[in-house]
Please model this.
Amino acid sequence: MDPHLQGVHCRDVERSFDSAGVRQHVLKRLRFDAEPGQLTMLIGPSGCGKTTLISIIAGLLGCDGGSVRVLGQELSGMKPDALLDFRLHRIGFVFQQYNLIWGLTAAENVAVPLVAAGAAWPDALRKAADMLGRLGLADHLSKLPKQLSSGQQQRVAIARALVHDPDLLLCDEPTAALDARSGHQVMELLRSVAVRPGRVVIVVSHDQRVFGFADRISEMDDGVVVRVEDRVPTEVAYPSGPT
Model:
C-alpha cells in the first residue's frame, strides 16, 4: 500500500508522567486506529488521555512503549530532524486555544507553516490568502487576531493547519469554546474542506452536539480505548464552501 494512503495505527501505547513525585500512568497499552478519508472522533471524559494521545500521534510527545505508526512511518524510530520535517510537511494541528500569533495578521499567521517548511514569504502569503478565502475570510486577510471574532479566529487556525495540504489533520476540542450554532458550522467546515480521500482527520471532542459528523467514534476512558463505533455520518456538509 502507498504509505501516503495509510492511516494512524497505535498498538500497546503507554505513557506516564511524574507529578509531585508520583508516577501517573496516562495511557495504558492503548490501541487506536484512524483511517484515510474519514473523520474519526476521539471522545471521553476530561483527563482520560485524549490530548496526550494526539500529541503522541503528532510527534510532539514520545511514548514509553508500544508502536505508533502514522502515515506509514513508525514515529519511535525517527530521528529528531526527520520527525520535525515529517510534522512540517504532513501533519496539521488545530489547537484548542487556537495559538495564533497576536502580532501577525490572519494571512501572516496562516503563512507561518509554509515559511517554516521552506516556502518564500510572498508565495506563502498567496497560498494563505487562497486558503482563507476558501474558509470565508477573504475580507479579513490583514486583520489581527484581536480584530476577529472567536469563530473567525477558529477559521484562521483551521486554515493554518490545512494550508500545506497535510495528510493528517488533528483537532483538539475545536468546538469547546463555541456555542451550538458556531460549533456546528466549524464541524461542517471540517467535513467540507478537510475530509478527503487520502487524508486522516482526527477530532478530539466531548461535545455530543457534533458527534453526528463522525465516520468513526473511538471512546477513551482511563487511558484506553473502551469502545469503537463505525457509522454513517448523519450530519455531512456538502463541499460548497462556507457561507
